Amino acid sequence: MPPKPTVRDVARLAGVSVATVSYVLNKRDDGRARPETRERVLAAAAELGYSASFAARGLRRGRTEQVYVVPRRPGSPFAAALARDLAAVAERHGYATAMFVQGDWEGYLRRHVADGAAIDLWHRRGFDQARLEPLVGMGLALLVFGNGIEPDGFDVVRSNELQACEEAMRYLVGAGHRRIACLRRWPGEGQDDYRAVRFEAYQNVLGELPEEWLMPYTDNSWERGHDAALALLDRPDRPTAVFALSDSAGVAACWAARSLGLRVPDDVAIVAVGGVHEPATRVTFVEPDRMDFTPAADLLFDRLSDPGPGRVLFQNWSLVHRGTA
């Protein structure tokens, strides 16, 4: 097996210095290399099959050159969008990204496996932010998603999700609906879950409703939401509107109504919270204005290069009218 090409091989083929190759391939040439020189270096690296070693480079610089995404639900659209945008920004800085899927993320990050992390603490009521102090103390750059978290040596992303859900409920009430059912998880399940905040908005606007209007289902699957919606809508005193605490439950409610011959929104209005769209249903959603985490990722890399006082970035949610309400 032939030896692996080295940075010196790339420099020799490109006719430049080793330092120039290092600047170009590590994406920190800052304009020091002319465009034609940069192209020559990249072409030489491609011809030789050379790729830089993150591990070796990190050892030389005293960094891992890696950032982690720590989501609450790794398979969610939120986690996917955050990982996508963080990876794009990380690539510009010569960093790699990884996702922590399950287990003790605090203990794992304390093992110096990363230089920074984007941590999803949305709806973690009661989370003691003192738990973040050891990570900040060891120099880890943190970007934390959570309304109840105060920036203290790290940056925070907040949202108005609760207020946007309340706006959606007031919209339904203002449209004349009085029998508004709620598709939610079983009482007592997932009290730290994102649905708890959404259910709080429902209760804030409507107050205490009879239990029969609070239709629970056992998980967030389409099938369970569909069964629960059928049970709600196939009754003599059916609700005139449904507030679904997840996007999948909202889509399922639309199909359940159609299967019963109900017209949406004429016979029953449906509003859901989330934002995963299905063109066939065009659900009216409470959702983030933009599922773009590039500004948040930029904030994390700003902190990696220049630590300072904690900052707050705001993510706006709003009611987006489509075809179901």
From TrEMBL:
The entry's keywords: DNA-binding, Transcription, Transcription regulation
Keyword Transcription regulation: yes
One Pfam family of this chain: Peripla_BP_3
Highest rank taxon of the organism: Bacteria
Ranges of residues in domain HTH lacI-type: 5-61
InterPro entries associated with the record: HTH_LacI, LacI/GalR-like_sensor, Lambda_DNA-bd_dom_sf, Peripla_BP_I
PROSITE patterns tied to this protein: HTH_LACI_1, HTH_LACI_2
GO function term, MF aspect, one: DNA-binding transcription factor activity
Gene3D superfamilies the record matches: 3.40.50.2300, lambda repressor-like DNA-binding domains
Coiled coil: none
Protein name: LacI family transcriptional regulator
